[in-house]
Amino acid sequence: MPKKAGFIFCLVVTVALMAMILLPLVVVVLGSCINASLLGLSTDLWSGSRHDIFDFSAFGYIFENYSDWALFSLELAIACVAICLLIAVPAGYALARHPFPGSGLVEELVLMPLSLPGITLSMGLLATYGELRGPLLVLAGHLLYTIPFMLKVVTATLRSFDVGRLETAARSLGASFPQRLFLVVLPNLRHAMMVGSLLVFAVSWGEFNVSFLLNRGRPQTFPAVLYDTYTNQSIQISSAATTIFLAIVIPAVIAIQWFGGRDSVEVEQGA
Amino acid sequence: MLTPDSHITAPSIFSVRKRRQLAPLLLCVPLLLLLLVLLVWPLAHLFQQSLLLTDAPTAGITLRNYLEIAAVPRYRHALLWSLELSLAVAAASTLICVAPAWLFTRYQFHGKLVMRGILTLPMTFAGMIVGFLMVILLGRTGFIPQMFERLTGTPFLSGVGYQFPGLILAYLYFEFPRATLTLESALNKLDSRLEQAARSLGANRWQVFRLVVLPAIWPALISTFAVTFSVSLGSFGVLLVLSIRRFTLLPLEIFTQYIAPPTDQGIAAAMSLTLLTVALVTGYGLRRVAQRMGVTHA
Amino acid sequence: MNILIEAHNLRKSYGFVTAVHDFSHSFAPGRITAILGPSGSGKSTTLAMIAGLIDPDGGSISLNGTDITRLPAERRDFGLVFQNYSLFPHLSVVDNVEFGLRVRGIDKAERRRRAMAALEQVHIPNLADRRILQISGGEQQRVALARALAFSPRVLLLDEPLSALDAKLREGLRAELGRLLNELSLTAIYVTHDQVEAMSLGHELIIMRGGRIEQSGTPLEVYTRPATPFVATFLGSANLLDGEYLQIDGQTRLRLPFVEIPAPEGATVGPCQVMVRPEDIAVVSDGNGHLSGEVISSVFLGNQARLTVTAGGNTLIVDTSNEAIPSPGTMVSLQFREAKLCIMPKGV
Lengths: 271, 298, 348
What we know:
The complex is a heterotrimer. By secondary structure, chain A is mainly α.
């Protein structure tokens, strides 16, 4: 089989997958603001009663009613980033550079939530801390999912980089442990911390299943806005909510791709 | 070569060594505490709950909750259908995604970054978003049926979104990125020089793939399968939105148990742990198989 | 600088493998001591113990009489030059060189001054603001050296600093390194597997094998009077012959497989091994030599020729001038310089 054929086959399959992924997204974005009848769609479920070509009223509706939810999600995401940096970076350093008996187990344990059903983790949290149901518990759930990402990125960098050699050099030059940490280790972790923060932000922002269960009352997380609109509102409003969601998630993913480069961390997230 | 004294230390008379071993442990303490509080203790508590009857908590430990999962048809079907769906989706996505993974790791071309970006996008979507996308595309008044109607007069595929094909498509939608990335990282670890050697010996591209690459990536295929399987197993967001009649999945049952009072905590806990066990066992079991096949990858 | 470093019975094992057995040496102050050995001989481990980067399982290290075995590496004030340089990629050249001064709390202006002085010493002051990844291997090595010297270390430890460079570059830098180290009169310990480096740079030589010291002494001593066959063959080339001391007519004589000569003073009867270097065997005109043999191969090496000759049941390597090289198959007459015969105990 000539070389070209293999390439073309893979390309065709990949493009087909891409089309399958893009098509609904495009329809959603269009459906949120373009008069549905122009797309040839029956208007009942699709839009309100406007007749202009572009109609951004759906977005207005979302902003009016759900801006505090968006803010809540944003606060959660930022809190996750901060906590992950403070907890996962030192732990990642310890696990990668100074493994102790059982450190392998610790790493496995941290990464476990990624391959466990989210609903089980949520049920566990509810069973134990049910009275705390609300923002605090939601944060807890988010942390379970975001800390593994930060840890993975940090340990991967520390291991591939052989920061150990640099630390040895720094020791030979007289640097004490705090000096080594701040002058040698952390500067070389800047990139990893940035990619990790982006990942944590994206994961926290998009998390729904666990957040939905663990929260109580309003405000909910932003993905819950989507759920709310899917079950109650017209397709135009749901599309608008989805578009806003995409508008925040897509730049984050692009940034992660751009900075993470070839070794983007495998993301495993429950849906 | 000088090596950092990170791991090998003989029993010594120097106390400074003991201190050095303690320090890394201290750095991990916040993490360990968090794990204990958020993961280990809740799961233990859940386990305890699953062994008690909700309406008779003082009756002592019993396995009745677990037995009920098998006994009650609704729950039994939920478990079986969850397994079947996850298996099908895992197999399909693992196989299909070899193509894009191969494309991204073996060829260079313009727009690769963009393509990769698009393919990995759905990973951040919660299941219910994907459910919504299916409704938009293939629901009763979905985009595709309406397009067909305009072009041919009949709305093909109308309402498909609310049936099995829609369900499968939805699951595939968010598993493709995961499968692609996992396979990609495994393919990257393959030494391309082996392929070059095979080609220098006269093998064409297909033969190289069949005889050199495939045996080498078998473990990766198995791990990818395991990962997509466990993720699909635990996911219920899609069904929340699509709500197919007379069809249910185990995570959805747990969810409805919890949302609709009165909650049978015992059963919910038992179901949750069953789900967890299946996911864990297949995950680790398959990973063992992959390891024993030789090549291990992160 | 007259810093005296002494190692006493240093020992280090990894699981079942003993990397260093009982290393004891008093390193000449103000001089360069080269530790030479094949890979796995324990030389890098020994250096790491002296530097404080690895804790010995037993034994001690003292500095001018004070025991520093428990002193952490960062407080020993030893300069270290690593095989792969280990330069900090996130810092510029001059920031790298300043590092040792920075962690000692020296103020900015003074740091910069001393770092630039160190860069001058290694002849690359012009590279001060470059990034590490922008400079060549040879330049990186100089930066590594400057960085180790900038904080005026008490001792300089070098772990195969030139082995990552290609041959031509290595040669040039070797000479410069030697000049610099001699100018500074630092106590230096230089670990290498390259005998040319060891012999040309070291004032004193330690040959290590299997975690132990095989021999130590000046390069000339070790070269002309190797203590064991291993040292004889590791350093330069050597011919090893079996011999025997015999009493004949009241005199002790040394019998080699093909020749008998008077034995040196103090020889006791018994078997022994004799080493003779290729350059100490001469091709002479017929009949004048100790024995004759047939040339098996001759290799032209530029400034000389190396012959492989079978004589009296042995295969000998003989170096001869590059003029009138005997071709394979010719018979030649060989003469041994008796003064250069080196006798060692058998079976080592």
